[in-house]
Structure formats: structure tokens, C-alpha cells
């Protein structure tokens, strides 16, 4: 377990201000104490955990709050890590990831005075002091799939994924494949889940890189990386493979990875985003106003900007993506089947 305490100062500098790998001094702020437990992995994973943490920091800055977090080292530590923060006086605890769902509910029952935000944790039964921040990942995946199929010259696209034990990962994959088929019914798909469990599937960039290279060797020229550091490994491998003469594209996940995985920029055409940072921030601020959500709160999704590839993506593809996004938002297009809904 890695345990950190800090004060929110300037949000834009917050990640640099907190020294990873060392404990920051505990200083009591005027506002609330806002806390977070990561899934297995690090707070600066440039993906899922980091996006949630940045939402925590944004809220802490706005509310003049104190922050504290624990980096989970092993899946067996979920409950203990949550309890440690609960006993430390945290008023809000964000638990990041589907795998922390059971531990979060049990902690909420034990600590009814604490407000819990479970990122990617669907709540089948409403509990007053718990909200599940969930996302329609299939919609973001569908847009990424359309983009991949439209940009592919080989007619082969791939996805390098975390474990299929996590429903949001499955939703990304199913949406991606449906979107690719929507754009090109003859597209060939190579989708590969990590074979390991929750303790390894999102922290294995070497496997991600190897799997991306295998897909490339099988003809894939657009590769979607969706699996924390494992997916990042795939993106960075594709960046090494692309050339001006034979471009290969990659698509990131969860956040705009142009901003977080600089090594992937040579291939990173976009990212299938879940606006986790905004969702976490909005839920904390609503709680601070005495308007806490419970049950499930559905966050926003979308494609990240094309950045250096703005002129590479044809205007007709951009227009098509905008039209599809509107259909997905309005419920007129099923992201799992690609069928229009009347």
C-alpha cells in the first residue's frame, strides 16, 4: 500500500506538486477531506486512476479541501485500504474500478456518514450514501470503431484489451467492433483480452506491446488500446511501428491520451473518452452543496480531438462521426448492434 496526503493548491500543477513515491506532509485545509482508493496500479497511470484523481483534485481546489489517497498494490487490500481512509476522517471516498464494488458497498454500510463514489460500479440497489459513476462505454467504443474502419487501408483493425472480467472493458470492445462493422461490414477484427486476472490485466505494458505487434504482423493498421498501462504499452508499440510511407494509427481510451501518453503521439489519432474527471468533480461539488446523488450517475463519453491528425482525417469522416454521435446520444442507434432504433 502506498499512502499519500496533500493539500489542493493549483489544479494545473497538482500532479507535479505531489511527489509520487514519497509521502507528502499532512496539512489540514478549511474545506472537506476528499479521499481516493485506486484499483491495482498507480495514481499516475496516465489513464483510469489518474483521471479519477484529477477529478478529486479539481473538486478539492474548488472547495479548499484536503486530499488523501492510497495506491492499491494487491486486490486483496481493497477493503483494508478503504477502511484506512474511513478511519482517517475522510468525508468523501472515491473507489476506482469495477473490482472495488463489493468492498465499497460494505464500507458504506459500516460508515453511513461518509459519501462514497464508485467509479465504474453499477448500483443494482440504491444505497443512500453511495453513487456509482458509470459510463456508456459502448458508445465511445462505437465511435472509435467507426474511426478505425474509415482510416484503415488494410481492412484489418485490432483491439488490445484488459480483462473480460470487467464489464466496461467488454463494453468498449463490443462497441468498437460494432462501430467498425457499421462503417465496413467486411472489416476484419482482431480483439485480444489480457489472459490474467485483475491483479495483472491492467498493469502489463509488455504484454500490451507484444499483442499490438502481433496484430500489426497480421495486417492491422489501426489498433485500439483499452486497458490501463497494458493498453498504453500497445499504443507506444504502434507509435514505434508507424512510418510516413506506411502509417499505422492507434486509439487511446478513458481520457485524451494525447495529453498523458506522449510517446504514443506519432500514431494517436484520437481516444475513446470517458469523462471521469468531470464526473468525479461534479459529484463531489453536488455533495458539498447538500445535493448528493445516489444510485447511478451516468457520465459523458466521446472522442478526443484529432490533434496532429486533424488534417489526416477526411472531412467526410468527421461529419459522419458527428452524425453518429448525435444518433448515439439520442438513442436512435444501438452501439452494440449498429442497428438504428425507431
Secondary structure layout:
Blueprint: E1 2-7, H1 14-17, E2 33-40, H2 48-63, E3 66-72, H3 78-87, E4 92-96, H4 101-110, E5 115-119, E6 130-134, H5 137-151, E7 156-161, H6 167-183, E8 188-193, H7 205-217, E9 222-226, H8 228-241, E10 249-254, E11 268-274, H9 276-288, E12 295-298, E13 301-303, H10 315-330
Parallel strand pairs: 2-3, 2-4, 4-5, 5-6, 6-12, 7-8, 7-9, 9-10, 10-11
Antiparallel strand pairs: 1-3, 11-13
Helix pairs in contact: 2-9, 3-4, 5-6, 5-10, 7-8
The best one-word shape is globular
CATH architecture of the largest domain: 3-Layer(aba) Sandwich
Please provide the ordered H/E string of secondary-structure elements: EHEHEHEHEEHEHEHEHEEHEEH
The major β-sheet equals: 7 strands, mixed
Tally of helical segments: 10
Overview of the molecule:
Pfam families: Bmp (PF02608). By secondary structure, this protein is an alpha/beta fold. The chain folds into two domains: 2-135 and 276-299, Response regulator (Rossmann fold), CATH 3.40.50.2300; 137-274 and 311-330, Rossmann fold (3-Layer(aba) Sandwich). The protein has helices spanning 14-17, 48-63, 78-87, 101-110, 137-151, 167-183, 205-217, 228-241, 276-288, 315-330, and strands spanning 2-7, 33-40, 66-72, 92-96, 115-119, 130-134, 156-161, 188-193, 222-226, 249-254, 268-274, 295-298, 301-303. β9 (222-226), α8 and β10 form a beta-alpha-beta unit. The chain is globular, with a radius of gyration of 20 Å. The relative contact order is 0.14.
Amino acid at each position: 500500500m502506498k499512502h499519500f496526503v496533500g493539500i489542493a493548491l493549483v489544479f494545473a500543477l497538482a500532479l507535479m506538486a505531489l511527489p509520487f513515491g514519497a509521502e507528502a506532509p499532512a496539512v489540514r485545509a478549511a474545506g472537506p477531506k476528499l479521499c481516493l482508493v485506486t484499483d491495482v496500479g498507480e495514481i499516475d497511470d496516465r489513464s483510469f486512476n489518474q483521471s479519477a484523481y484529477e477529478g478529486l483534485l479539481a473538486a478539492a481546489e474548488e472547495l479548499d479541501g484536503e486530499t488523501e489517497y492510497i495506491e492499491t498494490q494487491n486486490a486483496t487490500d481493497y477493503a483494508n485500504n478503504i477502511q484506512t481512509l474511513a478511519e482517517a476522517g475522510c468525508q468523501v471516498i472515491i473507489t476506482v474500478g469495477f473490482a472495488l464494488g463489493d468492498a465499497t458497498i460494505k464500507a458504506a454500510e459500516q460508515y453511513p456518514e461518509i459519501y462514497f463514489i464508485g467509479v465504474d460500479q453499477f448500483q443494482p440497489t440504491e444505497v443512500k450514501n453511495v453513487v456509482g459513476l458509470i459510463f456508456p462505454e459502448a458508445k465511445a467504443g462505437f465511435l472509435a470503431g467507426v474511426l478505425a474502419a474509415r482510416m484503415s487501408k488494410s481492412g484489418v483493425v485490432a483491439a488490445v484489451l484488459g480483462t473480460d472480467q470487467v464489464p466496461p472493458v467488454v463494453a468498449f470492445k463490443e462497441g468498437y467492433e460494432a462501430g467498425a462493422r457499421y462503417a465496413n461490414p467486411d472489416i476484419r477484427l482482431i480483439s485480444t483480452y489480457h489472459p490474467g486476472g485483475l491483479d495483472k490485466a491492467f498493469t502489463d505494458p509488455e504484454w500490451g506491446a507484444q499483442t499490438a505487434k502481433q496484430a500489426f504482423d497480421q495486417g492491422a493498421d489501426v489498433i485500439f488500446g483499452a486497458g490501463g498501462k497494458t493498453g498504453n504499452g500497445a499504443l507506444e508499440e504502434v507509435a514505434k511501428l508507424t512510418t510516413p510511407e506506411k502509417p499505422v494509427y492507434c486509439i487511446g481510451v478513458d481520457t485524451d491520451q494525447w495529453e498523458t501518453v506522449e510517446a504514443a503521439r506519432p500514431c494517436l489519432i484520437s481516444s475513446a473518452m470517458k469523462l471521469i474527471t468531470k464526473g468525479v468533480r461534479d459529484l463531489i461539488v453536488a455533495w458539498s452543496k447538500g445535493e448528493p446523488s445516489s444510485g447511478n450517475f451516468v457520465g459523458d463519453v466521446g472522442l478526443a480531438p484529432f490533434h496532429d491528425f486533424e488534417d489526416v482525417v477526411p472531412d467526410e469522416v468527421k461529419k459522419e462521426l458527428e452524425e453518429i454521435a448525435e444518433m448515439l446520444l439520442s438513442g436512435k442507434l444501438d452501439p452494440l448492434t449498429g442497428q438504428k432504433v425507431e
